[in-house]
């Protein structure tokens, strides 16, 4: 499930750590790459910029000044989604969303969205959904979760004394278990079909050509 709408306006940010071994790589090349990845899932890249960091800020990843400057640009352009080209911790993601008042996804989430957009087989779709859920479970932090937002934070499905984060973790874990079971069934069916084809006493051929060529 997409965390955004098609053609939604996006702000793309490419943070670069000054002391990293790959810091010598063209900053512009890195920015162009993440812009192209963002556009690949039909997001409208309205603003894009790089920022060089001396160190990672534990709460925001960026320095406070840089984060506030980006937030001002997001507000000015009425942007609903920010793509940050790095691996954000759940706390950093939460704090940036609060500061910028918009949805924030990191590079991992963007790649998962691209995989999901391109999955065609049932097995591929299930594998991407499983990866999405595992990623969501890793993002759960106390007081803020994606599931809480989707449900409006009521938490009325939980048992007595069950906190919101415990409920969300249980829901995701249950869904992961169901997906794994369904994925195993799909794999088993595929193997059975393959074995059945092998038992056919005739050679298997494939006809390749242009659509409607004949």
Polypeptide structure, described:
This protein has 214 residues and is α/β, with parallel strands linked by helices. The chain has a four-stranded parallel sheet, with helices on both faces. The protein is elongated. The protein has two domains: 9-107, Rossmann fold, CATH 3.40.50.11060; 119-199. Residues 143-161 have low confidence and may be disordered. It has seven helices and four strands. It has helices spanning 27-39, 64-76, 90-100, 107-118, 122-138, 146-151, 164-199; strands at residues 9-17, 44-53, 81-84, 103-106. α4 runs antiparallel to α5 and α5 (122-138) packs antiparallel against α7 (164-199).
Fill in the keyword field for this structure:
alpha/beta; Rossmann fold; 13% strand; 50% helix; 4-stranded parallel sheet; 2 domains; 214 residues; 7 helices; elongated
Brief sketch in words of this structure:
The protein is of the alpha/beta class. The chain is built from 7 helices and 4 strands, in the order βαβαβαβαααα. The longest helix has 36 residues, at 164-199.
């Amino acid at each position: 499930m997409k965390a955004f709408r098609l053609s939604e306006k996006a702000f793309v940010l490419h943070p670069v750590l000054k002391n990293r071994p790959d810091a010598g790589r063209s900053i512009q090349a890195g920015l162009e790459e993440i812009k192209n990845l963002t556009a690949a899932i039909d997001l409208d890249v309205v603003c894009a910029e790089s920022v060089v960091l001396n160190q990672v800020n534990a709460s925001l990843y960026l320095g406070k000044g840089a984060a506030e400057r980006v937030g001002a640009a997001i507000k000015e352009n009425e942007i609903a989604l920010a793509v940050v080209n790095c691996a954000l911790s759940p706390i950093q993601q939460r704090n940036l969303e609060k500061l910028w008042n918009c949805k924030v996804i990191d590079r991992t989430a963007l790649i998962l969205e691209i995989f999901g957009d391109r999955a065609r087989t049932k097995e591929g779709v299930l594998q991407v959904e499983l990866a999405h859920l595992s990623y969501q479970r890793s993002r759960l932090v106390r007081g803020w979760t994606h599931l809480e937002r989707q449900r409006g934070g009521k938490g009325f499905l939980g048992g007595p004394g069950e906190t919101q984060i415990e409920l969300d973790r249980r829901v995701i874990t249950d869904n992961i278990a169901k997906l794994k079971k369904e994925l195993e069934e799909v794999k088993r069916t595929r193997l059975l079909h393959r074995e059945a084809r092998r038992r056919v006493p005739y050679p298997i051929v494939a006809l390749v050509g242009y659509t409607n060529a004949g």
